[in-house]
Specification:
By secondary structure, the protein is of the alpha+beta class. It is built from 7 helices and 22 strands. It has 2 domains: 244 residues, Immunoglobulin-like, CATH 2.60.40.3680; 55 residues, no CATH class.
Length: 329
C-alpha cells in the first residue's frame, strides 16, 4: 500500500503483536537535563525511538578553558499513584548511560508529594515504600490509627473488597511520585564529551484504537488524539481501509502510543547544533503518525527528521496502529 509522508505527520503500514490488556496508559520520559550552565553546549543529539527501545546519543562541548563539573539529571515525569493503582500503567525501565563509552552509575532521588507538599518523611517514618509492588501491602499492614491518619492527610484512599470472608478495607496510595536519576559529570575544558542513554519506553496502548470509529473521532477525546499525534486524512483513510478489511461489524485495530519529552533539549546554553530523529515502527505493515516537518522515509520501517540550531517547542508523541484480525467475509 502507498505510504504518505505529509508535512506535519506521517502515515505508513506496520504489524506488531497484540497487547495483552485492554488499555495501558503510557508514561513519557525524555532526554538529559543539565543544571543551568552557559559553558556547555549540546553540539548534537541523535535520537532513535521505537515501541521497544529509546536510544539517544549526545555530543556536549565545554567551550571554556577550564573543566566544568555539573549535575546531569534524567527526570521522570510526575507519576500519580492513585490512577496507577486502579489501572495498568506502562513505565520506562532499564536505564543505561555511557560517557565516552564507559558505563555511569546513576543515583536516584525519589519524593512523594500531595498537592505540592513533600510527604516523603511521613512515609519513610512508617516504612512505606514510595513506589513498587510492596507499597500497597505496606499501607494495609499499618495499624488502623496510622491508616486513618494517612486517609485524613489525603495520602491514601480507601479501597474496599470482599476477600471471601466479608468486606475488607485496603489503602490505595494517593501521592505523586517525583523521581530523578542523576550523576555528577566533569566536562573537560575545550573538548567534546559523548553521552549515550538508552531505556525501554513506557509504551501504552489499547487492543482497539478509538480512531477506527468515525463517531469516536468527532468526540472531544478523538479530536484531542488527532491533534496530539498530527493525524491527517491519509492516516484516517488508511485506518478505514484496514477496518473494512477485517470484515467485522466493529473493527478492532490495536494501537501503541509512545511519548518522549523533547523539550528538555531547550535547557542548554545554545540551541541543539544538529538534531536527528529516527522513528522505527518495527515492521512494514501498520500505521504510524507523529508531528514534525521535513520527515522522510529512510527504510521500510524507519522515518527521519533532521534539524540544525534547533530548540524543540513540543514533545514527541507517536501513534502506531496495527492491522486487526480478519473475519471471513
Amino acid at each position: 500500500m502507498k505510504v504518505t509522508v505529509p508535512s506535519c505527520a506521517m502515515a505508513a503500514l506496520l504489524a506488531m503483536p497484540a497487547l495483552a490488556n485492554d488499555t495501558t496508559a503510557e508514561t513519557a520520559a525524555g532526554g538529559l537535563v543539565l543544571t543551568r550552565n552557559g559553558a556547555i553546549d549540546m553540539v548534537s543529539e541523535d535520537l532513535f525511538v521505537s515501541a521497544d527501545k529509546v536510544r539517544v546519543a549526545y555530543v556536549f562541548r565545554n567551550r571554556t578553558p577550564g573543566d566544568v563539573t555539573v549535575t546531569v539529571a534524567f527526570p521522570m515525569p510526575d507519576r500519580d499513584l492513585l490512577p496507577a493503582y486502579f489501572q495498568d500503567t506502562a513505565l520506562p525501565s532499564g536505564f543505561r548511560t555511557l560517557v565516552d563509552g564507559r558505563p555511569v552509575t546513576m543515583r536516584v532521588e525519589r519524593k512523594a508529594l500531595v498537592s505540592g507538599r513533600d510527604v516523603t518523611a511521613i512515609l519513610a517514618a512508617l516504612n512505606v515504600p514510595l513506589a513498587g509492588d510492596r507499597t500497597a501491602a505496606a499501607l494495609d499492614a499499618l495499624p488502623r490509627a496510622e491508616q486513618d491518619r494517612l486517609l485524613a492527610a489525603k495520602l491514601a484512599e480507601p479501597d474496599e473488597s470482599d476477600d471471601g470472608h466479608g468486606m475488607k478495607r485496603h489503602l490505595a496510595p494517593a501521592w505523586t511520585l517525583r523521581e530523578t536519576w542523576y550523576w555528577e559529570q566533569t566536562f573537560p575544558a575545550g573538548r567534546d564529551l559523548q553521552v549515550e542513554h538508552s531505556y525501554a519506553p513506557g509504551t501504552g496502548g489499547s487492543v482497539g484504537t478509538m480512531l477506527a470509529s468515525k463517531a469516536s473521532r468527532a468526540e472531544p477525546e478523538g479530536r484531542r488524539m488527532i491533534a496530539d499525534y498530527c493525524v491527517d486524512s491519509a492516516f484516517l483513510a488508511a485506518i478505514d481501509r484496514r477496518a473494512a478489511a477485517t470484515h467485522a461489524e466493529f473493527a478492532v485495530l490495536p494501537e501503541k502510543r509512545i511519548h518522549y519529552i523533547l523539550t528538555t533539549g531547550g535547557n542548554w546554553a545554545a540551541p541543539i547544533g544538529r538534531f536527528r530523529l529516527v522513528v522505527d515502527k518495527g515492521a512494514a505493515d501498520n500505521l504510524v503518525s507523529f508531528c514534525g516537518d521535513g520527515i522522510r522515509k529512510i527504510s521500510p520501517t524507519q522515518f527521519e527528521m533532521m534539524k540544525t540550531n534547533w530548540r524543540p517547542e513540543r514533545d514527541l508523541k507517536i501513534l502506531i496502529v496495527e492491522p486487526g484480525p480478519r473475519n471471513p467475509g
